[in-house]
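Thread: Newbie trying to understand structure tokens

Hi all, I'm a second-year student working on a class project, and my supervisor (Dr. K.) asked me to get a predicted structure for one chain before our next meeting. I've only ever worked with sequences, so writing a 3D structure as a token string is new to me. If someone could post the tokens and maybe explain what I'm looking at, I'd be very grateful. Here's the chain:
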Amino acid sequence: MSRVDQLYRKTARILVVDDERLSLILMERLLKAAGYSNIVLVQDPYAFMKVYEEAPTDLILLDIDMPGLSGFDLIEQLAARHDPLTPPILVLTAQHSRDYRMRALELGASDFIAKPFDQAEVAVRVRNMLDVYIAHRLAQDQKAVLEHLVHERTHQIRATQLEIVRRLSRAAEYRDNETGEHILRMSHNSTLIAHHIGWDEERCELMLHASPMHDIGKIGIPDHILLKPGKLDPKEWAIMQTHATIGADILAGSDLELLQLAREIALSHHEKWDGSGYPRGLAGEAIPESGRIVALADVFDALTSARVYKVAWKVEDALDWMRAQSGKHFDPQLLAVFFELLPEILEIRERFKDPELTASA
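---
Reply by user tm_fold:
Sure, no problem. This is what the structure looks like when written as tokens:
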């Protein structure tokens, strides 16, 4: 055993519980003679649990035959705590029957020793039980440290991934005349809808971080088309539509759930419920639910946001148009959810206003 372990063993907190004062004094002397210094004596069994909770305990020497609360009762109280690492219990008893000893062991005692006991035997039993317990505690501590390090590393990796995602999203914003606030509004609204329809917290978080990449494919659209202030001609519009597949290609091939969801959204958020959307002309529930959700959040914010090439629609006008698109552009059930959540959606719109070009209401 290392010097550190020896020191730990000698300073281990040992509770001695016995209703007889003389027995407590004798046990204290025995343990001190063996080199232990942190010995706590408990004569009143009703005070045991309070004393036990005051500091971490490494070993309990417990008398069974006590008035009011027996040693059996105290063992059951300890078991009811469900502590991850309960200290070993060495039962001290004058009872010699097998049933008596078996009951103590079945309840959770680690070992027992009969009164009157041999002092050398007690010292050896105490040492051995402490050595085993200390080994378990050190292993537990090392496991906790390792789990903490893994958690920290996982958090760092997660933060790095999200930083990359944010920068990818910003790249698309700079190519288009979108704003960071648009991305915030549509991603928060998408997450709000997803949460309301039953997505779990983990998948909602993925939605929050994946949806900003819905238009990442616009990186591949030529400026003269992407930034054209007027209406696109059919050829230009066909090129513009390719941003959905370009985005899917950029995000393809990843094992990360975040990028997998982002790819699904990039490829499907321009599909329409009636099958008239692009790039694949999917209809109804063949469109991934993530794409149907983002379509609602993205279209509403695009309509009600001012840009250098367009004025914002009034909220009422945008909502009227969206109602008319139920079963055409939008999933009717999700659109109903959108309107149910309208107060929260408008609060998100207010919270993340464009700094200069504020949408008119």
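A couple of things are worth pointing out once you decode it. The first helix runs from residue 3 to 10. The chain has 16 helices and five strands. Feel free to ask follow-ups in this thread.
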